[in-house]
Write a structure and sequence with these properties.
This protein has helices spanning about 15-20, 70-85, 90-95, 115-140, 165-180, 195-200, 205-220, 225-230, 245-250, 300-320, 320-325, 345-370, 400-410, 425-430; strands at about 40-45, 60-65, 100-105, 150-155, 185, 270-275, 290-295, 330-340, 385-390, 415-420. With about 450 residues, it is an alpha/beta fold. The chain has two domains: about 15-200, Cytidine Deaminase, domain 2 (3-Layer(aba) Sandwich); about 205-430, Cytidine Deaminase, domain 2. Helix 10 runs parallel beside helix 12 (about 345-370) and helix 12 packs parallel to helix 13 (about 400-410).
């Protein structure tokens, strides 16, 4: 095993929220910042003889330990890996460089000054290895010819102690030194958390099922037949292919197979939605372009609640003078919904009714403003998209059949359906505000 004790389980959702996506301001001394940083890294080489203890192209987690920072442990591991690669016959006989040629690191904090110096030292050692190899194989003169260098990228989600005291000054100089040594630095922002989620494997338990979910959705869109989709999928008998954060994990990112009766699926769905209009006078109670959360209540599904809310918003917009005088349509023209479960049959019908009502509003407005003939001219329609992360009950009983027909009915009414997969969780994180506090 490589020196440094990295873990197979890379990062938990608790790590993500408490260690990486820290919402505090740097000057906020009222709350305690996490003291133990977390590091993920991977490297790549062209070698045919691989290092089994520290596999390449595989994210590895390293935690700091008493008296030794995670960066220092990683540097030692990578030097040991380079020594191993150099012990292979192919290192000196192949025309392609067989040592480490790229390193990518994700850190919860930017490196301290000491670690920055060690990382620069590692970069210098690996660059020199490439130069020596190129000189040996191709007899190039380093004084006149530019050689390749190690590609080194570090992304961190929070700055380390970068204040006005001596330690902060040294840390700042360390970061500048990394840049001078061609180490690429990036700060993790609200727009690019997906690579961390993927690297940390936060939702990998769902992956086998998500691919099948995507195929199942094609049936409801009319692009796949019932036979290959087969209701046995939702009973857990058949796979369709060869192949706060607590709610993300427990309600949206449910890892179970549909036929697994040993575990209890969450019974209470969660819904997020937003709408847009061209109105100059906005509804201040249900603001547009803002994600709103709706939970199901006693005897009323969340979908039913948003249908009522959106009809009320439309009525409010129609009460404004601009609705009948402006050249642009002032009512609701787009709706986006994210659901933990696909809608039941009753909710699907209500959503179809909402779509028809709003489409008709657009038609009436266009006829009034532009004197269009609806029997011969195509009018605009509302843009309506629903994304869900789990299918609702779709089995062989009457209830399951009705739910399935409801989804097909949504598609027939030009409501776009999408299934939440492992590669597109970021929009949910953004909508639910899980990282926006930063």
């Amino acid at each position: 095993m490589a020196e440094g004790g990295y873990n197979e389980s890379l990062a938990s959702l608790e790590d993500f929220n408490k260690v990486f996506a820290i919402p505090l301001k740097y000057s906020d001394s009222s709350k305690s910042w996490p003291s133990i940083p977390v590091l993920l890294y991977k490297y790549a080489s062209n070698t045919t003889g691989k290092h089994f203890d520290i596999p390449e192209n595989t994210w590895i987690r390293v935690d700091s330990r008493l008296g030794q920072h995670a960066e220092s442990i990683m540097v030692t591991d990578l030097i040991n890996t380079q020594d191993f690669l150099e012990s292979q016959v192919e290192y000196y006989t192949g025309s392609r460089y067989q040592g480490i040629h790229s390193i990518e690191v994700i850190l919860s904090y930017s490196p301290c000054s000491t670690c920055s110096n060690k990382l620069c030292g590692l970069k210098g050692i690996l660059d020199e290895k490439i130069t020596q190899h190129m000189m040996t194989i191709f007899s190039i003169g380093t004084d006149v010819e530019e050689t390749e260098k190690t590609e080194f990228k570090i992304t961190f989600s929070n700055f380390n102690k970068n204040n006005v005291d001596e330690q902060g000054y040294e840390n700042n100089e360390g970061l500048k030194n990394l840049r001078k040594n061609d180490v690429n630095l990036y700060i993790k922002s609200d727009d690019d958390w997906q690579d961390f989620l993927k690297a940390a494997g936060l939702v990998t338990e769902r992956r086998k099922r998500e691919t099948d979910d995507k195929i199942a959705l094609q049936y409801f869109e009319g692009s796949a037949d019932l036979d290959p989709i087969n209701l046995n999928y939702f009973k857990g008998v058949k796979s369709l292919s060869s192949v706060s954060l607590v709610e993300l994990n427990e309600t949206f990112s449910i890892p179970f197979k549909y036929g697994d009766s040993r575990k209890t699926w969450p019974s209470k769905p969660i819904l997020l939605y937003k709408y847009t209009s061209n109105a100059t006078v906005k509804d201040i109670y249900i603001p547009e372009k803002t994600w709103m959360r709706v939970d199901s209540g006693l005897g009323q599904h969340a979908v039913s609640i948003i249908v009522t809310d959106l009809i009320n918003v439309q009525d409010y917009l129609e009460s404004q003078v601009e609705y009948f005088t402006g050249s642009r349509y002032q009512g609701i023209h787009s709706i986006e919904v994210i659901l933990s479960y696909s809608p039941c049959s009753t909710c699907s019908n209500k959503l179809c009714d909402l779509k028809r009502i709003l489409d008709e509003k657009i038609t009436q407005n266009m006829m009034s403003i532009f004197n269009m003939r609806t029997e011969t001219e195509e009018t605009e329609k509302i843009d309506f998209i629903i994304t869900f992360s789990n299918f609702n009950e779709i089995d062989e009983d009457d209830h399951g059949y009705e739910n399935k027909e409801g989804l097909k009915n949504l598609r027939k009414n030009d409501i776009k359906l999408d299934i939440k997969l492992d590669c597109n969780w970021y929009d949910f994180l953004k909508a639910s505000g899980l990282v926006t506090k930063r």
